[in-house]
C-alpha cells in the first residue's frame, strides 16, 4: 500500500484530527443507536494514539432521514468500549468547537457533533475545492496530523473526508489499514460464481454499484431484498402501484434497463412479509396492496436464494433483507446470513446494519470477512480507486518530498 500509517508518525503531545465513520443504525422511534459495531471497531486506532489530544469527527445518517441525529450517544458508547473519557462537544466548526480544541490538555478525547450539521458536508467536492471549504479553513490550523479511518465513506468526497487531507500531514488509521489489507488478500483468492446479495434502502447507490459489478464480472447473480427489491419488482410490473420513494421513476427505469440487459442475473422476491399490527404475515408479491408495509422477504424467496448461495464461489452481502431489529421480521436477514455462513463460498458481509446483525445472531466467526463499509466496499470490489485511497496516496507522496 503506498499510504502512510500511524507507524510513520510520533503522535505524542500532538493534536490529531481523527475522521471515523460512526454512522450507526438508529431506531426510527426512539432515535437510539441499534448496532455499535462501527464504534467498537475504532477503539484500536484510539489506543494507538496514546499521548495525543484526539478530536474525533463523524457523520451520522442523512439530513431529512430519521437516522440523522446528534453524536452525544456515540460519545457515551465510545467511552464504554474504549474505557477512556470522551467529551462530546455540541458544535462542529463554530467558536465553541474551536475554543474546546485549543484548550485541550494532556491526552484528552473530544467528539464533535454530527458533521452533516454543516451544509458543506452534504455535498461532494473536487479535491481542490474541498480544501477551500469553510469547514477545512476554520479547523485546519488547530491540528498537527489528520487521520483517515472511515473506510465506509471512502467513496465520498465530502470536505471532512478529502479536504483536510490536502492541507495537513495525513495517514490511515488502524481500522482502514486492516480493512484494506484483508480485502486485498480476499480478492486475490476470490473465485466465481460471484453472488451479490443486496438490501437496505440506499437504492441510488446500489443501482450504480450493480452496473459496475456486472461490468467488472463480479456479479454473476444478484439477489435482491429490501427497498431495492421493490424497485426491481416495480420495474418487472409485479408491484403495480407507486412506491412513493425519491426519484422513483428514474430508479425504476434504471432497474428496467438492467433487467433487460442482463435477464439472467437478477432474482427478486416471490413472497414477502408484511406488517399487520406488529404481526408477520407472508403473502405472494402479486397480492401486495398499496398500504401494505413490506418488512421482510418471505419463506419461498429465502428457499430460492439459499440454493443460489449454496452454489456460489464468492458471496458479498450488503444491506439487511428486512427490518431485523423487530423480532417478527428478522427471519430474512438471519436466514440469509446463516445460509452464507454455512456455504463453502468465500464470504464478505458489509455495512453497519449487517455487521450488527451478525453479532446479534452469533455468526461473526462464520464468515470470512466482515467489513464496516457498505457502499464504499461495493466500489472497492469493482476495482475502482476510491477518493479516500487517492488522498492517502497523494499525502504519502507529498510527505516523501518533504
Ligand atoms: C455508509 O454507511 O455507507 C457510510 O457511512 C456513508 O454514508 P452515506 O451513504 O450516507 O454517505
Brief write-up:
This protein is α/β, with parallel strands linked by helices.
- Give the C-level CATH assignment of the largest domain: Alpha Beta
**CATH homology superfamily name of the largest domain:** Phosphoglycerate kinase, N-terminal domain
Radius of gyration computed on alpha carbons: 21 Å
Helical content, roughly?
Answer: 25-40%
Give the overall form.
Answer: globular
Bound molecules: 3-phosphoglyceric acid
Total beta strand runs: 15
Tell me which oligomeric state these chains represent. Answer: single chain
Q: What low-confidence regions span 5 or more consecutive residues with pLDDT below 50?
A: none
How many helix segments?
16
Largest sheet: 6 strands, parallel
Distance between the termini: 20 Å
Query: What integer is the average pLDDT?
Result: 95
> How many independent structural domains?
2
Output the CATH topology of the largest domain. Rossmann fold
Structure description:
By secondary structure, the chain is α/β, with parallel strands linked by helices. The protein has two domains: 6-173 and 385-401, 3-Layer(aba) Sandwich (Rossmann fold); 190-371, Phosphoglycerate kinase, N-terminal domain (Rossmann fold, 3-Layer(aba) Sandwich). The protein is 39% helix and 16% strand. The chain has 16 helices and 15 strands. The protein has a six-stranded parallel beta sheet with strand order 3-4-2-1-5-6, with helices on both faces. A six-stranded parallel beta sheet has the order 9-8-7-13-14-15, with helices on both faces. A three-stranded antiparallel beta sheet has the order 11-10-12. Helix 4 links the parallel strand 3 (87-89) and strand 4. The longest helix is centred in the middle third of the chain and has 16 residues, at 174-189. The protein is globular. The two termini are 20 Å apart. The structure holds 3-phosphoglyceric acid.
